[in-house]
Amino acid sequence: MQLGIKETKELVDGVLTLAVAVDKSLADGKLSYQDLPLMIEPVGKLSVGFEGIEDVKLEIKDLDASERQELIELVKEKLVLESARTEEIIEKSISVALNIYDIIQVIKK
Length: 109
Prior knowledge:
Blueprint: H1 6-25, H2 36-51, H3 53-61, H4 65-78, H5 86-108
């Protein structure tokens, strides 16, 4: 079955957009209210990404080689970080995304 990766790409895009925004915000070594404008786009993209999150698991299970490559290219294109703590920022962003997903699942019950 070929489901595509629309929902997965939207979620990955939202998480990566957040990671890049946090990275830019930390350029001065701290996160402050002045960084809020940088978070507007990521919050919007995360919202869109979470709308179809229930389909992401199915899409990942159905992933073929070309879709996998498409996701890799998306990450390469979007993930331009300046911070030396790039890996930590990515891991925390993914953790936040998963925690938000868990909260949504609890609310839906």
